[in-house]
Specification:
Length: about 350
């Protein structure tokens, strides 16, 4: 078995075997989001020997993440490390024989096709509908299977979407759902839940990679009340679906340009500013300048600039900025022009 020894317990499992393991080692998977679900998913995929994992995340590690985001520790939070970098560091220690490609970026219509095509499977570790619609557009357009997952409070769900075989995400959700607006930041989330949902997503990913049949269901679980529900989606294709029937990919279309620049991070009391013109920021010079107006910390990947009134501005090298402490787009724009400049 040679260098397959580390996977011996998984190879003994008949669903995988040596043939399946060979497939996993040659596979490429993108995990979008390195939060609670993304850390669980990438942990399992790296341990299972998936050969190449691209981990995409736009955020940095904070103390409130440690309750459920299993790859991080207090030092990562203290150092303000981007999640993609902290996760990569940990995953390389777990399995140095696979490639973990850390991408510090917000998945958006400018980079989604570059980052996601060429992957065998895309796994959803995001916390928002817009990114899921974007993933769905790329997945349908380029015929890449993807595994959706979501978790909030004690309730979670997951679904496998296989272009050409199952309905797509947009068949099930024609538009961004206007729900109760519950998010992990308003009603919380239990860490055993994100472990379970992320683990299910990892299993379905392994099944896709070895060519085993995946669940045809939208599966929902409540781990507090021990309730589970399965809804077979095989017949759920919308005959008028813009994405998988008409091949009209609205989320890859540049029409909603302004909203793309300033967007609130769902339930986070945070506004993200993504400049439309590609540029890089000299973090050293910016730090020197900002020191006159507030407290500056950071590392080679980002700056963390604290102002009065609980406002913290995180500046990434690609000029993308997270403004923590407000949901007000106008205020965010003002702060952005004042401290970062257009
Ligand atoms: Zn569809």
């Amino acid at each position: 078995m040679g260098n397959l020894e580390r996977y011996s317990r998984q190879i003994l499992f008949e669903g995988i075997g040596e043939t399946g393991q060979g497939k996993l080692l040659k596979s490429r998977v993108a995990v979008v989001g390195a939060g609670a679900l993304g850390t669980v998913i990438s942990n399992h995929l790296v341990r299972s020997g998936v050969g190449y994992i691209r981990l995409i995340d736009r955020d940095l590690v904070e103390l409130s993440n440690l309750q459920r985001q299993t790859l991080y520790d207090e030092e990562d939070a203290r150092l303000n490390l981007p999640k993609a970098v902290a996760a990569q560091k940990r995953l390389n220690k777990i399995n140095s024989t696979v490639t973990v490609d850390a991408v510090i970026a917000d998945l958006n219509l400018d980079n989604a096709e570059d980052l996601l095509t060429g992957m065998d499977v895309i796994v959803d570790g995001t916390d928002n509908f817009m990114t899921r619609f974007l993933i769905n557009d790329v997945a349908v357009k380029h015929r890449i299977p993807w595994v959706h997952g979501a978790a909030v409070s004690s309730r979670g769900m997951f679904t496998v979407f296989k272009p050409g075989h199952t309905p797509c995400y947009r068949c099930l959700y024609p538009n961004v759902p206007q729900g109760s607006g519950e998010t992990c930041d308003t009603v919380g989330v239990l860490s055993p839940l994100t472990d379970i949902i992320g683990s299910y997503q990892a299993v379905e990913t392994l099944k896709l990679l070895v060519g085993y049949e995946t669940t045809p269901n939208l599966e929902q679980i409540d781990i507090w009340d021990h309730a589970a529900m399965q809804m077979n989606i095989s017949k759920g294709k919308n005959p008028n679906c813009p994405a998988c029937v008409n091949r009209q990919f609205d989320y890859l279309n540049r029409s909603s340009e302004l909203q793309e620049i300033y967007s609130t991070l769902c339930g986070r009391n945070t506004v993200q500013v993504s400049p439309r013109n590609r540029r890089t920021i000299d973090l050293k010079l910016t730090a020197e300048r900002l020191k006159k107006s507030g407290k500056v910390a950071g590392n080679q990947f980002l700056l963390r600039f604290s102002l009065e009134e609980n406002i913290t501005i995180v500046v990434f090298q690609d000029a993308r900025v997270l403004i923590h402490g407000t949901n007000d787009l106008v205020k965010a724009k003002t702060l952005y022009s004042k401290y970062i400049g257009n």
